[in-house]
Amino acid sequence: MDETGLAAAFGQHLARDRRRSAHTVRAYQATALRLLRFLGGHWGETPDARRLAKLTSADLRAYLAHRRGQGLGNASAARELSAVRGFVAFAAGEGAMPRLKGPRVKKGVPRPVSPDEAVALAEDVAEAAAEPWLAARDWAVLLLLYGAGLRVGEAVSLTASVLPLGETLAVTGKRDKTRIVPLLPQVREAIEAYAAQCPWPLPRNGALFRGARGGPLSAAIVRRAVRGARGRLGLAERTTPHALRHSFATHLLGRGADLRALQELLGHASLSSTQIYTAVDAAHLMDVYRNAHPRA
Questions:
Q1: Looking at 210, 245, 251, 284, which residue is catalytic?
Q2: Is 27 helix (H, G, I), strand (E, B) or coil?
Q3: 174 catalytically annotated
Q4: Is 246 a catalytic residue?
Q5: Active-site residue 242, yes or no?
Q6: Which of 11, 92, 131, 261 could hold 96 in an S-S bridge, CB 3.0 to 4.6 Å?
Q7: What is the pTM of this model?
Q8: Res 294: pLDDT
Q9: Percent composition of the chain: helix, strand, coil (DSSP 3-state, to 5)
Q10: Contacts of 59 (CB under 8 A, 6+ apart)
């Protein structure tokens, strides 16, 4: 079986036997194909199941170094390694994967989650879901936190009355205060994809996001899923659902957003609550300066 066929067989296994979402199947199959093509050049021969059984830690380090050279960040590299583990176990059997620690992210004072980390986190949470519709749900919830700045409690409290979605979303936050937030196309598509797959009825006065047994999704489930993903990806403990909201604010501010407009988007009662992001953004810029400037 050639490299394309082996990667395709892995994708079929994920879809049929592991019941992974279409998004996960595409991502993991693409990783398998990238690995096989790299190893073909690295070894000078076409990789097959027999040869994969002899994969070494040095081979994997060379592959990850190759991917790093293509701009892969820590979180995405850890996620790539997770996909590689699954593929090698499928193709060459359990135990064939050599031991290799994933990349680690330095711990330190609170900092916004990078876009790379935010997307990798959401993808990993979705990929760990037991059912495709749960994967779609988790992807939609985490995109709401990062792409619209919602608190996790606000996201799980949404009712199906928000459907059909428009370009904005009415969100009820603390002190029952309602605010209007814009919906990016990617966020809107994620929610719509979840709603289309959800096996439970979604009456207008009922919860939009449902748990595995049909009840309202709890914030604790979201936090637990994020804890698991950040452990698998080697992300710092600061990477929480609320950190995605912080990142939404910090990244907007870094791109010139007005503090008053940001206050409205976040639902802060006072401007002083929003002003903390000016300090966070300045600290982030100093980190970039120290790491990039030769005389820093």
A1: 245
A2: helix
A3: yes
A4: no
A5: yes
A6: 92
A7: 0.59
A8: 45
A9: 60, 5, 35
A10: 39, 42, 43, 98
Q: How far apart are CA 291 and CA 296, in angstroms?
A: 8
Tokens of 170: 């009415």
Q: Which of 63, 146, 194, 277 is catalytic?
A: 277
Q: Please give the CATH topology (third level) of the domain spanning 3-92.
A: DNA polymerase; domain 1 (1.10.150)
What is the structure's pLDDT at 250?
A: 61
Q: Which residue has the tokens 């990783």?
A: 31
Which of 20, 67, 179, 268 does the annotation list as catalytic? Answer: 268
* Candidates 174, 204, 224, 260; catalytic one: 174
Whether the upstream peptide bond of residue 164 has omega within 30° of 0, thus cis, is yes
Q: What per-residue confidence (pLDDT) applies to 77?
A: 80
For the chain, strand residue ranges (E) read 168-172, 178-182
- pLDDT for res 34: 92
Q: Distance between CA atoms of 51 and 276, rounded to whole angstroms? A: 54
Q: How far is CA 248 from CA 115, 118, 244, in A?
A: 9, 10, 6
Given 2.60.120.460, 3.50.50.60, 1.10.443.10, 3.40.50.150, which CATH number is that of 115-286? 1.10.443.10
Catalytic residue among 20, 34, 79, 151: 151
- 293 is an active site residue: no
Burial 39-60 (b: 16+ CB within 10 A, else e): beeeeeeebeeeebeebeeebb
Asked if 32 contacts 14 with a C-beta cutoff of 8 angstroms, the reply is no
Marked catalytic residue, from 42, 85, 223, 242: 242
Question: Is 277 one of the catalytic residues?
Answer: yes
- The confidence score (pLDDT) of residue 249 equals 63
Residue ranges in the chain whose pLDDT is less than 50:
105-110, 251, 254, 256, 258-259, 268-296
Asked if 79 and 233 touch (Cβ cutoff 8 Å), the reply is: yes
Domain boundaries, the chain: 3-92, 115-286
